[in-house]
Design a protein that fits this description.
Largest sheet of chain B: 5 strands, mixed
Distance between the termini of chain A: 87 Å
Number of domains of chain A: 1
Strand order of the largest sheet of chain A: 3-4-5-6
Largest interface: A-B, 49 and 65 residues
Structural class of chain A: alpha+beta
CATH superfamily of chain B: Zn-dependent exopeptidases
Distance between the termini of chain B: 20 Å
Order of helices and strands of chain A: HHEEHEEHHEEHEEH
Largest sheet of chain A: 4 strands, mixed
Number of strands of chain B: 5
Strand content of chain B: 5-15%
Number of domains of chain B: 1
Number of strands of chain A: 8
Structural class of chain B: alpha/beta
Number of helices of chain B: 6
Radius of gyration of chain A: 27 Å
Strand order of the largest sheet of chain B: 1-2-5-3-4
Shape of chain B: globular
Oligomer: heterodimer
Strand content of chain A: 15-25%
């Protein structure tokens, strides 16, 4: 190698060292920032992909009423007004309000649903039954207990009642499946009454399964759901403490 | 019939201080048993150790008894510490199928009014002892109650979030006394229909 080439080579190497010297601290800083960023869970990542952005619906901005915890510690809920561009389509509208409910209030202490839970799908049947399919996090991350589980279902039910006039019933699925309980206590095999006076979608009677069971949220004054007014038969029974007819024998449990 | 909820691998609610619902309810059940027996009640349990019978297994035990009342014991994850709530099944109309049998899945149906009355009585006694507790029983779709063919309530104590487990232990005698007093006050109201001579036992 001639002395001239040697000078060139040394010069190029020196320039490379200077560039590396400048770039290395930047790279180090970038790595440190990446490490400090909160880890995004699989559920959160899925939510980002599946959630409908409220701003994309094109609907006028209206005040939605969302029900989160009142903070009283007694299981009661409190309505909070949130401005959202709500869609006129009841299914989209229901998705919007439930996704906003899942996103949580400003004060995280007032959440009623786990932060990792995702609304995977929502269907609105012609009889007004909303089938809400949530990710497994709703079951695994809701605090176990009758009060906390009821509060979770109440918040969904009352939020739908306040914002989507067409929803009459609510059925909750976990990852596409019917499950026995939410987190060990609250029965999710049943359909919950959201609004007995729901606006009709089409003339169709509720299914036999859902017609007799549920909670009514409209009589609640403290945010708690109450049982539906007893139908004819139950109202008659309510006057007596002992059933007039002996209950008889039970069928075997279904396996 | 006392039902300490959960058990086995199902620990129920868990507190940060290592408090487990499945263990606490066993201790509560022991005290409730003592209080009830002192009032001449015959007491049975759905579990006595660390096992976890299914919802239906627990219901099967009580449904085989005549004139029983069912008390399911729970400790919440949330709620005002030091309060106790009684839950009864929200409306579930009593129905029979074509054969005249009560569907197992709706066994609580005919007993809802009785359960509500029993729950209100017990909650009334609890409210006297534990400030901040509601005055009447709350309706809730508790899975365990749905398949129970007897007046049935769920009693939930708040909560596993207490830092000191002794705080819960100190509540046990009061809870036991309120349940026993409630059962005693309810007894005259609960008239079990007489069995016809022709009926099978």
């Amino acid at each position: 190698m001639t002395p001239r080439w040697r000078v060139w080579l040394i010069g190029i190497l020196a320039i490379a060292v200077i560039i590396a010297g400048i770039y290395f601290p930047i790279l180090k800083k970038h790595l440190r920032q990446t490490k400090q960023a909160p880890a995004v869970s699989e559920e959160q990542a899925r939510r980002e992909l599946t959630q409908t952005a409220p701003a994309n619906t094109g609907g006028p901005v209206t005040k939605a009423k969302l029900f989160w915890s009142s903070g009283a510690g007694d299981g009661s809920l409190m309505p909070v007004s949130v401005e959202l561009p709500l869609s006129k389509d009841p299914t989209l509208r229901a998705k919007q309000v439930l996704n906003t409910l899942l996103a949580g209030p400003v004060d995280a202490e007032l959440r009623t649903l786990p932060p990792d839970a995702v609304l995977l799908a929502l269907y609105l049947l012609p009889d007004g039954t909303a089938i809400a399919d949530f990710s497994e996090a709703l079951a695994t991350s809701t605090p176990s207990g009758i009060e906390s589980e009821q509060m979770a279902v109440d918040s969904i039910s009352k939020t739908l009642e306040a914002n989507v006039a067409q929803v009459r019933w609510l059925k909750i699925l976990i990852h596409g499946q019917e499950v026995d309980t939410l987190a060990g206590h609250l029965d999710l095999t049943r359909t919950f009454l959201v609004n007995a006076k729901a606006a009709p979608m089409i003339a169709a009677a509720p299914s036999a399964n859902s017609a007799n069971v549920g909670w009514s949220a409209d009589a609640a004054t403290n945010g708690k759901a109450t049982p539906v007014a007893p139908p004819r038969k139950a109202a008659a029974i309510a006057r007596k403490l002992t059933p007039a007819i002996p209950p008889g024998k039970l069928t075997q449990p279904a396996n | 019939m006392l039902d300490p909820a959960h058990g086995g691998t199902d620990l129920g609610a868990r507190g940060t201080g290592g408090i487990r619902e499945s263990e606490i309810v066993l201790q509560f059940a022991a005290q409730v048993r003592t209080a009830l027996e002192s009032m001449s009640f015959q007491v049975m349990d759905t579990r006595q150790g660390n096992e976890n019978p299914s919802f239906d297994d627990r219901s099967a035990i009580v449904n085989a008894q005549r004139g029983a009342v069912f008390v399911s014991l729970h400790v919440a994850s949330t709620g005002l510490p030091g309060t106790v709530r009684v839950y009864v099944m929200s409306d579930l109309p009593g129905v029979t199928d074509a054969t005249g049998l009560i569907p197992w899945e709706r066994a609580q149906g005919p007993f809802v009014p009785l359960s509500r009355r029993f729950g209100d009585i017990v909650q009334g006694f609890l409210a006297q002892r534990f400030k901040g507790s509601p005055r009447t029983a709350q309706p809730a779709a508790v899975r365990q109650l749905r398949t129970t063919a007897a007046p049935a309530i769920a009693v939930e104590v708040s909560s596993v979030s207490v830092e000191d487990r002794n705080a819960l232990d100190r509540m046990a005698p009061g809870v036991a006394d309120a349940i026993a007093r409630g059962a005693s006050a309810f007894r005259p109201l609960y008239v079990v229909a007489a069995v016809n001579p022709g009926d099978r036992p």
